[in-house]
Amino acid sequence: MKLLQRAVLVATVVLGAALAAPVGAGASNGLGGARYYLALGDSLAFGYQPVDRTDAGHHGYVDQLFAAQQATYHDLSLVNLACPGETTTTMVSGGRCAIYPDGSQLQQAVNFLKAHRGHVAFATIDIGGNDIDGCATATGINATCIAAGFASTETNLPAIMTALRAASPDTQWVGMNYYDPFLAAALQGPSGVALANQSVALLVSYNAELAQIYGGFGVPVADVATAFHSLDTTAVASPPAPLPAGTPTNVVYICADTWMCALGDIHANATGYGLIADAFAAELKR
Q1: Which of 178, 156, 69 is closest to 105 using CA atoms?
Q2: 242: burial class by Cβ within 10 Å (0-12, 13-18, 19+)?
Q3: What's the pLDDT at 33?
Q4: pLDDT tens digits along 49-100
Q5: pLDDT at 19 over 60
Q6: Beta strands 221-222 and 36-41, pairing class
Q7: Does the CA dihedral 127-210-107-57 come out positive or negative?
Q8: In 3D, which of 267, 226, 233, 12 has the Cα closest to residue 133?
Q9: Measured in Å, how far apart are the chain's first and last C-alpha atoms?
């Protein structure tokens, strides 16, 4: 099934079930009947994997986090509005995924929050990675592209969070920073090492921007960068095959927990999505 076709199917089924479900006070978690987990974001929130697996969606971080939180929030229902390829711009204006009856992912989320105010246990959001991902290629990093990506995030993410907060002021939100898939370039010789080093500097700057924006709204950030050891350059004497001895720790994690080294695809695998889910869970416990 093509990616956008699957996106339409997942969003239609999940959103339709959520809107049809009665909003009652059957929860036993002391949150006034809150029973929904609302997930927003891009392909990572969608749970995309670049392999043809009928169960691929069940290994996304949203799915894993939902399963883990059901022990805390009884009768919890999942509403996942994520759109693969979504940027901060398209989240606001729409046009990326034609799956939202209300026009955009943001508007769909706002309408859901208003309709279920007081019944959303928590919500997660990861957005912005696609604002800058296309700026890095095998030949280097496009500084003009990066500047535009930072600017779009700085403009759109505060607008997104303002709208979401206004729709449901009491909803508990957790944002997310990013890992660095371009660390895999370090396996391609000296020029690749230089690109990987550049990408780390970019990651640090972009994650700092996300932390500042989310922090301004009192939203904690799931530290995915640390979960993937993105800044740890300690050499590993005996890494998993076929990585050579002395491969930096952050490169080992990217190869083990994403599809970047195997398929050249930036997305997490099931294990990597588990690391992301754990990073979100750690913030929900605080």
Answers
A1: 156
A2: exposed
A3: 65
A4: 898 654 445 689 999 999 999 999 888 999 999 999 999 999 999 999 988 9
A5: no
A6: unpaired
A7: positive
A8: 267
A9: 39
Residue 54 amino acid letter: T
Angle between helices 105-115 and 3-20 (to 10 degrees): 10
Gap between the Cα atoms of 25 and 74, Å rounded: 11
DSSP state letter for 258: B
Show the tokens assigned to 164.
């979401």
- Is 67 in contact with 47 (CB distance < 8 Å)? no
CA angle 199, 180, 231 (to 5 degrees): 80
* Token pair for 200: 């780390």
The distance of Cα 229 from the centroid of its chain, to the nearest Å, equals 17
Tokens of 66: 């939902």
Domains and their CATH numbers in the chain: 3-18+32-134+143-180+202-228+270-284 (3.40.50.1110)
Residue 79 phi/psi, 5-degree rounding, is -125, 110
Predicted pLDDT of residue 52: 65
- Pairwise CA distance, residues 121 & 20, whole Å: 18
pTM of the model: 0.88
Are the C-beta atoms of 267 and 259 separated by less than 8 Å?
Answer: yes
pLDDT at 32 over 50: yes
Residue 126 predicted with pLDDT over 70: yes
